[in-house]
Amino acid sequence: MAEEAMVLESQVLALGAPTSRALKAFKAWFTWTGEPTLWGRDKHLFDDKSDLVALAPVDTDRLNIFLQNYFGWFFKEKQPAKDDEDPIESSSGLFYYQGRRIQNAGAVISIIFSAVLLVGAIVCLLLISNKSIHLRVGMIVVFTCLFAIVVGLLTNARRAEIFGATAAYAAVLVVFVSNNVANGTTA
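RESULT FIELD:
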């Protein structure tokens, strides 16, 4: 019995903290009239974020968080009105959307960014293939920095992963430019 309690306690302690957005919505539900629902000793029950846990795992990247926080209304699902619906809940401004819809939109946006950065860089380098090597190297630097910024801002990649992805991206561009130089398309 004690071992089971310890296992359950360790599982609860392993749960992550709720996101600030979820915590804000949770607190708003308890103060929907502007007056707190909890009084006395319970008034500050939910003030310390470290006392609370999220039952669902919070596994999302920066782009998905951005989409949730600023464009969540776009992904909300139309719910049919219920006759017995609580008027408090219907006027609270809270809405439901599936997390999968946000993840799919984030994946599409990431694919578009990656394709534009790769194809756009190659097209630009091709257009300036008859210009000086200094200009082409400068363009590689600009596109590589842009790629690193996009990967760093839109993903949860660690520094080592960003460095590796950026090095691979730069290598592709350098190979493209060096092939053009070897083929005699330099000025």
